[in-house]
Design the sequence.
């Protein structure tokens, strides 16, 4: 018997052949085909085997322009489920994540996320992960994953495609204004690979500066140029 509501999982991908297979396998182990309508990998133009690996692990493929906001909006447009669940390609879901999302929706929550942990014992990053349990928009980010009812996503017009970075936080800020946002008690496990590659203090400092610049009214392109100069370089 089909449940009253189903979930479409949307994963924006770009050159993720090393991660995406493990993520897709993990989703099938921690979720149920009874509740999951589909898993959509929205590819932004990968040059590696991301698309082939994703297809081999049962995901639907949608081809998009590069840019997570554009990719996730297109995935949402193609999705058939009642609830959209946006997940990063290096983030592992907790056991029965789909049932926990559906329970929250049945309780009246139209959007929300899980708490987050990093795959590291670094005390500095563990502190920031601990803050993800606080229900305030300043403690939100895409690494925590995000569920939202499709009708609410459409009503709020989805992700702002002017943002090449920070699109998750900008959208979640609008969700806080439109609905009661739920923090689920279980945690997703996300990769700290960027911190390992670039240095945890450097990355966290510059992410903090991006938050501050956004708060002070910086244009989306200004945020991206800062990110490109200080984190991507």
Sequence:
């Amino acid at each position: 018997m089909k449940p009253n509501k189903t979930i479409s999982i949307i994963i924006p991908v770009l050159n993720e052949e090393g991660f995406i297979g493990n993520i897709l396998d993990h989703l099938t182990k921690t979720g149920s085909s009874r509740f999951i309508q589909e898993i959509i990998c929205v590819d932004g133009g990968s040059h590696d085997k991301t698309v082939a690996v994703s297809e081999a692990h049962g995901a639907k493929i949608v081809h998009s322009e590069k840019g997570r906001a554009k990719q996730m909006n297109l995935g949402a447009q193609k999705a058939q489920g009642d609830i959209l669940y946006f997940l990063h390609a290096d983030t592992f879901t907790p056991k029965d994540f789909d049932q926990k999302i559906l329970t929250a929706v049945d309780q009246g929550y139209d959007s929300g996320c899980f708490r987050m942990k990093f795959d590291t014992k670094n005390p500095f990053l563990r502190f920031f992960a601990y803050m993800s349990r606080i229900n305030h928009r300043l403690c939100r980010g895409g690494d925590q994953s995000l569920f939202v009812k499709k009708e609410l996503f459409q009503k709020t017009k989805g992700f702002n495609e002017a943002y090449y970075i920070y699109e998750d936080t900008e959208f979640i800020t609008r969700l806080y204004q439109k609905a009661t946002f739920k923090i689920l008690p279980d945690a997703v496990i996300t990769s700290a690979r960027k911190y390992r590659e670039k240095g945890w203090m450097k990355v966290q400092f510059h992410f903090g500066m991006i938050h501050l610049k956004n708060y002070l009214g910086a244009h989306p392109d200004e945020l991206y140029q800062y990110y490109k100069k200080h984190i991507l370089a």
